[in-house]
Design a protein that fits this description.
With 496 residues, this protein is of the alpha+beta class. Helices cover 39% and strands 20% of the residues. The protein has 2 domains: 263 residues, BirA Bifunctional Protein, domain 2 (2-Layer Sandwich), CATH 3.30.930.10; 116 residues, 3-Layer(aba) Sandwich (Rossmann fold), CATH 3.40.50. The protein is built from 16 helices and 18 strands.
């Protein structure tokens, strides 16, 4: 007996998700708003491929010695490693360097697209997700960083997130560099320990000062019993780092004064404080000082940041999987990365940029009731009552007339009968259906059933007799008046 064919199991890969029409439509509306703000600030669109040569992505990947660690990689036929892009910044650096002679300087661009992480997936952690970036390349002044922070604030408000529900938090990595210098962690031989310190500071919101203190020391044991090895700093060094992250005050001037004391003796640290002072003056001049906050706890994870760093944090509460109220947190961030483009050229190329996590921001807007994830209205469906060629030609003509009038419509092309066709129209969220059987055709008429009004009336009618007598939301019109009748039905639905 022949072997039975084994069916392939339909399954989506771990860390990836399918997206419905409603989700795609909501994302496009949200991104249209972001795009309009970015363009208002003079940024222009550019698109780079999802694949880059792995060496072009830089040394800031999780493990540059293993091309498949952290990124999805393949070998080209010329044995060069190519990887799916890890973010949208490294491809921009490559694009700018490759087109250096023809691009204006500074070069202001925005990009939106999928990025890929070959990492262990988990709740809310995907291997494919969308980012929306804006960058200014070839700008040495922090005026560009300040402008991106202001643009981030404007973007949140245009999306309907009110002042007080968000804050743009700003710091400068030069200040942290000064702190690390003062505790003896400068130089390449301390690169790994510096990264451990950065990661510890980045956990401030999650673990608080005491948790960070443990991570700066010997390490931290969490509730599950897992131990995270710490940076093993001395008590004096830990105290210096904690004085840095706790330097925040009620206003920007006081915070900067505290930071100046922390980095006293470090020229690089002082340079960072001075740059934040310049940015604060620009925020104040433009009326953004209440929306943008100088915050020493912002460090950003990647080591390529070289100056100002910033994050957009949403301040409202949401309920987590355990039913607990928690602050929503960050939906985007960025900073200055003066060394990234320079890898491709002999001279320094300063740059700064900002990235929005599209999926996370969509979740935030949904929690605020600012995002419509309901299925949008589908097409008008012309039902097929008779399947002979003459009837099909007439149905197709109806669809063509509706489309020529700008009405989204379709001819039912399945093989089922009347009941199944009505069920199909419901699942398509059709506003109405067009019905023409032999009797209507003989009289040059069509029936139009308003499915929206019909659903409303059906909820109010309690017995079949009343339903049959009322024939709710169904009209019969001359075939040559069909388009106008459909327009009237759609207009009535829009008013409700």
């Amino acid at each position: 007996m022949a072997d039975r064919q084994v069916k392939t199991i339909a399954r989506v890969p771990r860390g990836f998700v399918d997206r419905t029409s409603a989700e795609l439509d909501a994302a496009e509306k949200m991104m249209s708003v972001i795009r309009s703000v970015y363009e208002l600030y003079g940024f222009e669109a550019v698109e780079t491929p999802i694949f880059e040569y792995t060496d072009a992505l830089g040394k800031f990947l999780p493990d540059q010695d293993r091309p498949n660690a952290g990124v999805f990689s393949i070998q080209d036929d010329d044995e060069q490693w190519m990887s799916l892009r890890y973010d949208l910044t490294a491809p921009l650096a490559r694009y700018f360097a490759e087109n250096f002679e023809s691009l204006p300087k500074p070069y202001r661009s925005y990009r939106v697209g999928w990025v890929f992480r070959n990492e262990k997936p988990g709740p809310g952690r995907f291997r494919q997700f969308m980012q929306f970036d804006a960058d200014t390349v070839g700008t040495p002044t922090v005026a560009a960083d300040a402008e991106i922070c202001m643009m981030a604030a404007d973007t949140m408000e245009r999306l309907g997130i009110e002042r007080g529900d968000y804050v743009v938090r700003v710091n400068n990595r030069k200040i942290l560099d000064g702190v690390l210098e003062l505790i003896g962690l400068q130089g390449e031989n301390n690169a790994e320990k510096r990264l451990t310190v950065l990661r510890a500071i980045d956990k401030l919101d999650k673990f608080g000062s005491e948790g960070v203190k443990l991570l700066l020391g010997k390490g931290r044991l969490d509730e599950s019993g897992d131990f995270t090895k710490g940076a093993e700093l001395s008590d004096e060094a830990i105290a210096k780092v904690l004085s840095f992250i706790n330097a925040g005050a009620d206003n920007g001037e006081a915070t900067l004064a505290n930071l100046a004391k922390v980095v006293e003796g470090s020229s690089r640290g002082k340079e960072g404080v001075d740059e934040l002072q310049d940015m604060l003056a620009l925020f104040t001049a433009a009326g953004y000082e209440k929306r943008i906050k100088i915050d020493p706890s912002v460090v950003r994870g990647l080591e390529y940041y070289t100056g100002p760093v910033f994050e957009v944090e949403l301040l409202f509460d949401v309920v987590n999987e355990d039913g607990q109220k928690v602050v929503f947190g960050s939906v985007g961030g960025g900073g200055r990365y003066d060394g990234l483009v320079s890898r491709f050229r002999s001279e320094p190329v300063p740059a700064t940029g900002f990235s929005i996590g599209v999926s996370r921001l969509m979740t935030a807007l949904k929690n605020l009731g600012k995002l419509d994830l309901d299925e949008k209205t589908g097409p008008v469906v012309v039902l097929v009552m008779d399947k002979d060629r003459t009837s099909l030609e007439r149905y197709q003509n109806m669809v063509a007339r509706l489309r020529n009038a700008g009405i989204r419509s379709e001819l039912y092309v399945g093989g089922s009968g009347m009941k199944a066709q009505m069920k199909y129209a419901d699942r398509r969220h059709a506003p109405c259906v067009i019905i023409q059987g032999s009797q209507e055709r003989a009289e040059n008429q069509v029936q139009i059933k308003d499915l929206v009004e019909g659903a409303r009336l059906s909820a109010e009618i309690e017995d079949n007799k009343t339903w049959r007598e009322s024939r709710p939301a169904q009209i019969t019109v001359d075939e040559n008046k069909m388009v106008d009748a459909v327009k009237d039905i759609l207009a009535a639905q829009d008013r409700k």
